Amino acid sequence: MRCKGCATSTSRSWAFEKLQWKRYTDLLTEVVRRETITTEQQVRIQDIADGVAGAFAAVNGLLNELAESRPSDAAGLRARLEHAPTRLTDALGVARARMSEAGKPFGAFAPVIDDSADVAEDVAKRLRKLRIPVFPAHGSLGPCREMVSPALYDGLSGVQTFALLNILARLQATQTASQPLLSGRDARVTHAFPDRIYLEAHRSLIDDLARDRAFVTAPASLHRFKEGSFKQRTFSKGNLQVSYATRAANRVVIDADLDLYRSPLRHLFGEVLVNHLTGDTTDQYAVRRILDEQSVGPIGSFELLRV
């Protein structure tokens, strides 16, 4: 799952790796060729630069890990994120001090360190603004634990898990026929995607939606199951849409997702077309923010970690 802000932090960190580090190595090659520094001085410069490079590499490693993993240890992650910017700025401070102590032979490298420090300060600021989803273990999903198998849940990526928990939160908070929408439906999640989930459930779920004035019929052409579709109209944004198809033994298969906008025009131009043109899916951070505004609590121990 890509944490909010990880991409921009990574791009700034790469500004050191791709630009400043190359600038440093080119400069070192030139001064060695000209024999303007001794072998001992060369080793010292390399040691200073390696300390800076190591700090940037640690930040890149952490950001890549966050982009590819599904963190569940909020306390441990918070400690690492609090330490990373400090280590980065400290490394540049040490490098500046050592360059200053070394005097004239190292003067040519000072601008590289100064520019790298500017990059480090920017990266440190961005790290402190990250928002990272921390997902509950399967055993901490509460009532939804029975709807999602451990094998399915543990095999999901971060973005799939985020979407699953957001949609389940809305489903759990929605009532029809004076009971929670999923209550007594023998519902089972079969698939989770970055913007929707598929379920199997008892047919009564669809029958109750059809009688509920909080839902209206909606087009199902963009959904996997097209027999019919109902869309919630309770809110101005973040409404549930349920598209379905009938199966044997009084069962239905369901494609459930959350739309950022209730208005068909805003949904089309503000979400569907944007996602189609950019190759993105519904922003689950935006969905979670909408759910928070509507006092829809998260599933289990899910939280958005803010450093």
Number of helices: 9
Average of per-residue pLDDT values: 80
Classification by helices and strands = alpha+beta
Going across the biggest sheet, name each strand in turn. Answer: 4-5-9-8-7-6
Distance between the termini: 17 Å
List SSEs in N-to-C order.
Answer: HHHHEHHEEEEHEEEEHHE
Question: What's the multimeric state?
Answer: single chain
Biggest beta sheet attributes: 6 strands, antiparallel
Radius of gyration from CA coordinates: 26 Å
- Low-confidence segments, given as residue ranges, are 9-16, 263-279
Strand content: 15-25%
Number of domains as seen in the coordinates? 2
Overall body shape? elongated
Helix percent reads: 40-55%
Give a count of the beta strands, DSSP E runs of length 2 or more.
Answer: 10
Describe the structure in your own words:
Helices cover 52% and strands 16% of the residues. It has 307 residues and is an alpha+beta fold. It has a 6-stranded antiparallel β-sheet, with helices on one face. A two-stranded antiparallel sheet has the order 1-10. It has a two-stranded antiparallel sheet with strand order 2-3. Strand 2 (175-176) and strand 3 form a beta hairpin. Helix 1 packs antiparallel against helix 2 (39-68) and helix 1 runs antiparallel to helix 4. The longest helix is centred in the N-terminal third of the chain and has 30 residues, at 39-68.
Output the keywords.
307 residues; 2 domains; six-stranded antiparallel beta sheet; two-stranded antiparallel ribbon; 16% strand
